[in-house]
Each structure stands twice: as structure tokens, then as C-alpha cells.
Design brief:
Length: about 200
């Protein structure tokens, strides 16, 4: 796998994500339930309250994914699918600690393919386009609240969706990305009376 280019890794991750969707009877336009999907693929999912924990994947004695329960819901969903990526690609034991920075920044091919598997599974091109279309949203003039609604439907984080739409799907320009990221998820959640961690 070390010899694969980033483009090859993205294509391999997307192909496996599509295979998993088909195998589990999830259409390309539907949102994904990460826990149910992980269990369908043979992984037990557990939660642990550790502030620095993103997720853990252990293949033995039986496959298990452990998620940090203190992370926001969208982040837990993404991490769950990232850990499932390690399971799908048979990477062995993994432990992810709290990370900062842009999505997909890793140079480790196994971490990168797990990231791309998670992204293309949760936010397939078809599901993002379908979600935009049925809501009547124009991708060229998206408002932060519209992206927040899309992220909520797909079960992912606000910034995660912005990054994926910009760098993987090419639906947003870098200027749009910059403008959208000026609004924080905390500000948007407060409009609905939600807690910042929900």
C-alpha cells in the first residue's frame, strides 16, 4: 500500500465504502448509522469516557471499536467509521487520540485510507448532492445554517462536511470554505438551544 498514490488510496477507500453500503443494503443517497453499520460488519461498538480518546480498534479476541464518549456526536460518528476502515482494511490494533488540524492531513497511508473510507461512507458524493437537491440548496451560495442542516442530516460535524466538500468533492471553493468556517458550530447550535457538545 505504501506505493499507492493519494489518488489511488482515495479510489480504493471509496470503492470499499461503496461495497460496504451495498453489502449492508444502504443506498448511496441515504445517511448512515455508524454504530448499526459497524455491528453489521462484525464490530462491537463501546463507549469510554476519556477526554483525550477519539477511538480504538482492536481485532482480537473479537473485533471491537471503542469511541470517546466526550467527543461531539458528529466526531464520534466519523471516528466510528474511521475505526471501521481499519477493520475493513485489516490494519490491526489502532488507538487514536484527540487530533487537531485539517481532515486528511496524515502522511500515514493506513490512517489516510481509514479517513477517506469514513468520509466517503458518511458523505458520499451521491448523498451530498441528493441532500443539497432535496433541500433546494445552491452549493454556490451556501449559508452556514444550510451546511449545519446538511451535516446534521448526514450525522457528521459541520467543519468535517466543509472540509470534505472542499478538498474531496470539489463542491466548495477555498473562499467559500473560509467564509463558512467563520461561523462556529457552537454559534449555530446556540440558535437552537442546544449544548455545544450535542
Amino acid at each position: 500500500m505504501d506505493s499507492l498514490s493519494r489518488k489511488d488510496i482515495i479510489l480504493k477507500a471509496a470503492a470499499q465504502a461503496e461495497f460496504v453500503r451495498r453489502k449492508c443494503g444502504i443506498t448511496l443517497t441515504a445517511a448512515v448509522d455508524p454504530i448499526m453499520l459497524s455491528e453489521q460488519r462484525g464490530c462491537e461498538v463501546r463507549f469510554m469516557s476519556l477526554p483525550s480518546l477519539e477511538g480504538v480498534y482492536s481485532p482480537s479476541p473479537r473485533p471491537v471499536i471503542v469511541l470517546g464518549s466526550e467527543r461531539p456526536a458528529g466526531r464520534r460518528a466519523y471516528t466510528c467509521m474511521h475505526e471501521l476502515g481499519h477493520h475493513e482494511f485489516k490494519h490491526g490494533m489502532r488507538m487514536e487520540e484527540l487530533k487537531t488540524g485539517r481532515l486528511y492531513s496524515t502522511e500515514d497511508p493506513e490512517e489516510f485510507i481509514a479517513d477517506m473510507f469514513a468520509a466517503t461512507l458518511l458523505m458520499s458524493q451521491a448523498s451530498v448532492h441528493h441532500s443539497l437537491r432535496i433541500r433546494g440548496f445552491d452549493k454556490t451560495i451556501l449559508e452556514p445554517i444550510q451546511v449545519f442542516r446538511l451535516a446534521s442530516f448526514l450525522g457528521v460535524g459541520f467543519n468535517t462536511l466543509i472540509e470534505h466538500m472542499t478538498f474531496t468533492l470539489g463542491l466548495l471553493s477555498r473562499q467559500q470554505r473560509e467564509n463558512l468556517r467563520k461561523t462556529t458550530p457552537k454559534q449555530l447550535k446556540s440558535n437552537f438551544g442546544c449544548s455545544p457538545q450535542s
